[in-house]
Amino acid sequence: MPAIKVVLLACGSYNPPTNMHLRMFEIAKDYLHRLGNYTVVGGLMSPVHDGYGKKDLVSSTHRLAMLKLALQDADWVKVSDWECVQESWNRTRTTMQYHQNLINAALNNGNYNDVDNDMLTWIPNNVKNGCVGPVQVKLLCGADLLESFGTPGLWSDEDIDMIVGQHGLVVITREGANPLKFIYESDILTRYMGNIHIVTEWITNEVSSTKIRRALRRSDSVKYLIPDNVIDYILKHKLYGSKDTAI
Questions:
Q1: Dihedrals φ, ψ of 69, to 5°?
Q2: Which of 87, 88, 90, 144 is within CB 3.0–4.6 Å of 94 for a Cys-Cys bond?
Q3: Confidence (pTM)
């Protein structure tokens, strides 16, 4: 049986992007390839729309620029600005379905339905050329997103049916976490348990965008926690209350 081709899609604020955001893709790819029945053909980072309204969220112009800098040497992970250029915030399932539909069109003799070419830059070249067969978009996330499915009113059953049932999750979790217990306690996640891949990150890294912003406000060093070119961008534009002394 041929391996299932996968594009990993990670949605988030990336405020700012950290090395751990990038590492998640490598961890997930290694895991899926070890299973033997998946081949990861691409990765995609999709920053959230400004209308999401999260505290301390800088404009998508800055977040897109930082992501492009962070990924300038990446050979298989790219940035999609589709969420950011919409008129308003979109739900995750809408974002996933858009990217899945565009990949399907790319595989169907390049029938993009008059889509602006700028919106196609994230599609892997082998997918554009239609030479890899069917491709499935899976949501790459942390255990906190998985657990958020249990927050009343945050996700509809239709969201979970689409995201988990039709696409699937690759969840990066830390040693000592127990996401399987959370899945067990959720009827709808248990229904789709076969479509949820739990990946433990044994080389722990507790860096987060929140901690990075705090360090920048305090003029503490963030070197080796986020890419150097992203640090330079933050300092140049004085983001997150940073000063030139923060490195």
A1: -65, -45
A2: 90
A3: 0.92
